[in-house]
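Sample 3 of the quickstart, ligand NDP:
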Amino acid sequence: MFKAVLIDKTEGKQQVAITSLDEASLPEGDVSVSVHCSTLNYKDALAITGKGPVVKQFPMVPGIDLSGVVEHSASPDFKPGDTVLLNGWGVGEKHWGGLAEKARLDSRWLIPQPSAFTPYQSMAIGTAGYTAMLAVMALEERGVTPDQGEILVTGASGGVGSYAITLLARLGYRVVASTGRQEEAPYLVELGAENVIDRRELSEPGRPLAKERWAGAIDSVGSHTLANVLASTKYGGTVACCGLAQGMDLPTSVAPFILRGVTLAGIDSVMRPLAHRVEAWRRLGELLSPHQLEAITRPIDLTQAIGVAEDLLAGKVRGRVVVNMA
Ligand code: NDP
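Result:
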């Protein structure tokens, strides 16, 4: 038997609880993993609270990230005792996920644990940090360099935002953090932001074009915020779009694209090909120090995961949480 967060739905109503499950109930897969750590991402919080259509079938064990040790393997790529990492691939949405002591997975979804990090540290980074790295790489690939000016990070106190600031600052970019939590300004400055602005400056409907300010941006908020960021991006700049914390809509016009040559780069972490994942984790290993991971993260145990998911959607969680199984 093992413990898991289990989401179920009866008569249209979702229930979620910490449950003891039999290993025989685990889904199909060629690798079984003893999960050491998982984490709570925005998507996990939507799944647990039922506030977003993340879970595609019930019952479901949520958790889009996990790190653990292989117990059984029918794959030539992994053997018992190997430490592995998983981010995304629909795990925690369509296939039972990481908020459990055990998981059975498709070996094609796993990568070896990056040597730079312990399982705890890799979950401190999780999909949020790996997505921030993909977003930074998207800016680099499109020629955004530190000498071009300020880079805006929205949703700054969240998981993606915290890592985006840390990584950009480490690479020498001048970072401006947009947050709804002014009390977190010292934290954002410690991560590497030069300047902190109030997110209300960006969250209301704006003009199709505004004064050019940002050489680039990493946005995890969407909606009017993203529209305003695009409108104030400098000629030739790039905005990496990763999230929808304000909303799924994008009430913009073609003006930033056809008059200023702005690029909107879409970032998806879930179905990202393996080679991109390995490269993103290699870069994370190069750029992040244990001290930075500690500043961003706090540990919880599995029994706290449901309550903390509510806090995360209420905007009360700063940075990241790691869920320790043992
Ligand atoms: P968090 O909850 O940790 O961070 C989101 C942040 O957004 C909050 O901390 C808050 O920052 C800000 N925010 C929250 N509500 C609003 C609002 N109504 N208006 C404006 N800002 C708001 O989530 P994550 O960092 O884990 O994820 C951020 C987004 O990125 C989510 O939408 C998530 O689904 C998406 N995502 C996408 C991925 C992909 O593959 N594309 C992968 C990972 C995440 P503050 O308090 O500082 O203002």
